[in-house]
Input
Amino acid sequence: MNILIPPREGRAVRVLKGQIMRIATPKGAQAADYFAFNAESPAEWLSANHTWVTTFNVKPREGDIFISRFRRPMVKFLCDGAEGVHDMMIAACDQFRYEYFGHKGPHASCSENLCVAMRREGYQIDVIPQPVNFFTKTTVEADGTFISPPNPVKPGAFVELEALLDLICVVSSCPFDLKAEGWAINAGDGPTELEVVVT
Ligand SMILES: [Zn+2]
Output
């Protein structure tokens, strides 16, 4: 199954246990917010914060197992084709974040993309889980200072993820396009598409 996620939009994809989802940024430097829910019980979702405890790292790394908020294995990070440039600390963007940075009026967001994608699967999402943000550059300094430098991810960079349960996964092409000081999440020319392949 091949899915092209247009810039600023999100899609839900059903991934069966044992299947592999490949997410790529064809033009590079496009943050991909990734959420995963147990297909049989969407109240169980992939939790980045719970995963830190078992991987001893705030970044997702090749070979890591992402666990749910009920601490069950959900996803294995099989292959990292983006040189480790990922984040799982920044909350999904939402309307409030754009307003905080001075945007007037409605703005597309990863939170809204998640809600719309899950509604199309028949589920209302009331809590936005902490996503894994693939292709997002963040660093934590020794004193705890949090930095998001310009995004260095190359065109064609990708990740491959194995489902350890039957899942509903949501991938959002992060619509962040504001020139906010210190938050160059995406490349300068605005959001671009993402490619998803499930095999
Ligand atoms: Zn976003």
In short: The mean pLDDT is 95. Residues 33, 92-93, 109-110, 174-176 surround zinc ion (CB under 6 Å). The helical segments are 48-55, 95-100, 110-120. The two ends are 7 Å apart (CA to CA).
